[in-house]
Each structure stands twice: as structure tokens, then as C-alpha cells.
Design a protein that fits this description.
The protein has 7 helices and 5 strands; from the N terminus they run βαββαβααβααα. With 244 residues, it is of the alpha/beta class. It has a single domain (7-17, 60-243), classed as Nucleotidyltransferase, domain 5 (2-Layer Sandwich), CATH 3.30.420. The longest helix has 33 residues, at 100-132. The radius of gyration is 21 Å and the shape is globular. It starts with 6 loop residues before the first strand and ends in a 5-residue tail after the last helix.
């Protein structure tokens, strides 16, 4: 029997959405800038930086491409062949197709929907129990709890927040169980694991090279999701994350 905690190795790229414009801050150039051309150049750089950063913010960005590999995925139904590895890639769809967020939800819920909804139901049960003391523990359903997967990637917390919020929007109305994306600890951040918080200026590419990971054609996370997952897999294996 496979008792390994399922893993979702996820690489993703985001892009700003038109909605970002109303959120654009008012940029005030330094007081010592007098030349109009210099001021215009400064404003252009500030706006470019804002929209680059906006690509990582909920509401100001959307998922542009996602690539994920699932290790230890459960069978969808009894009798399915033994294949506990799943792979999924999705790029921005054409007209009439579901969004990346919706399509990924559909795919992952095939394997983990029961675990996510079960854990959410029990989280709510515990909240009611703590708040009222009117529900006794004996009322909890007795069954073997399904195991929730762990997301592994570069800043998976940000990915989960963007994914969860996008699915909850009125125009989508396919909310994830909050246990998946809000207040969840079911993720491991490769960058945070490799680079101590006390040394935030360490270069990620240099750290990966020191660990023997090939970054020849890789610049940074969030550009090529499939290349990200290749590096995530190697780093996660070195760190022992894949053997839990």
C-alpha cells in the first residue's frame, strides 16, 4: 500500500489583467527632478515595475500557464491501473473554453476533491465544537480520513491565493474548499527552503548551481512553468520533500 503523502509539483506563470489600471498608484517623481524628459522616463519605469509586480497579486493578475505533476495520486475508481503519477499542462484557453483556474480545479478534484471537502467539513466541525461545546466528539463521522496533497513549488502560497480567489469570483462561482487555499499549511516553498530568511539577498540561481542543479536555460521562477517543475523536482528530492 502506498502511504506516501501525495505531492503536487506546480510551476506557474501569471500575467497582469486590465483590472490593474484602476489600482495603479499615483507616482510622484523626486522633488529634485525638473527636466520633463527625465520625469517621463522615471514615470515609465515606475509603471513598468508596478505592472511587473502586479502579475503576482490576486485581482491584479490571472494564471497564464500552469504545469503540474502529481506524485502519489489516488485511483479515480477501483480497478484503475496502478499509475500514481499524473501530469497536466494548461495554457490560456481560446474562446469558449474554461479558464486555467477552472480547468485545473476540475482536473485536481478528480483525485483530491474528496480529501479537500472532507478536511474542510472537519475543520468546520472543529470550529463549531470549539465555539458552542454543544457538539460532542462522538458525533464526528468515523471513517479513515483521505490524505490531502502537499503543493511544492516556488511561492506556492501565492499561487494558491490567486487560484482560490479567482475561482471564488461571481463570474466563476467554483470556489475551492477554503482548507485548500486559505489558512492552509499544505505547501512547501522551494525558495524559502533553500534560502534562509536571514540571507534574502542570496541569488537563487547561484544557490541552485551550488547544489548541482542545471540552470543553464533557466532565469527565474514564473517564466517557463515546465522548466520550473524540473528544477522543483530536483530541489525537492535533495531536500527530502518527496520522501515524506
Amino acid at each position: 500500500m502506498n502511504t506516501m503523502t501525495p505531492k503536487i509539483l506546480v510551476g506557474y506563470r501569471t500575467r497582469p489583467v486590465p483590472l490593474a489600471a484602476p489600482f495603479e498608484p499615483e507616482f510622484t517623481p523626486p522633488a529634485n527632478y525638473k527636466d520633463a524628459a527625465k520625469i517621463a522616463e522615471w514615470l515609465t519605469k515606475q509603471r513598468e515595475q508596478f505592472y511587473e509586480e502586479a502579475a503576482a497579486y490576486p485581482y491584479l493578475s490571472t494564471l497564464d500557464e500552469v504545469f503540474c505533476v502529481v506524485l502519489g495520486k489516488p485511483k479515480e475508481k477501483p480497478g484503475d491501473p496502478d499509475n500514481d503519477v499524473g501530469q497536466w499542462v494548461y495554457r490560456e484557453p481560446g474562446s469558449g473554453k474554461p479558464s486555467i483556474a477552472s480547468a485545473m480545479r476540475t482536473w485536481l478534484y478528480r483525485y483530491f476533491g474528496r480529501a479537500w471537502e472532507y478536511n474542510e467539513a472537519n475543520r468546520l466541525f472543529d470550529t463549531v465544537l470549539a465555539a458552542t461545546q454543544e457538539v460532542v466528539a462522538a458525533d464526528r463521522p468515523h471513517e479513515e480520513p483521505p490524505v490531502s496533497p502537499v503543493f511544492i513549488g516556488f511561492d506556492p502560497k501565492a499561487f494558491l491565493k490567486i487560484w482560490g480567489l479567482e475561482l471564488s469570483m461571481p463570474g466563476v462561482a467554483q470556489p475551492l474548499a477554503p482548507a485548500v487555499w486559505y489558512g492552509s499549511n499544505n505547501y512547501k516553498d522551494i525558495r524559502a527552503a533553500l534560502i534562509p530568511s536571514e540571507a534574502p539577498h542570496l541569488d537563487l540561481r547561484h544557490v541552485l548551481k551550488l547544489r548541482g542543479i542545471d540552470v543553464t536555460n533557466w532565469t527565474k521562477p514564473g517564466v517557463n512553468p515546465q522548466a520550473d517543475v524540473t528544477i522543483i523536482t530536483q530541489a525537492a528530492d535533495q531536500l527530502g520533500f518527496l520522501r515524506e
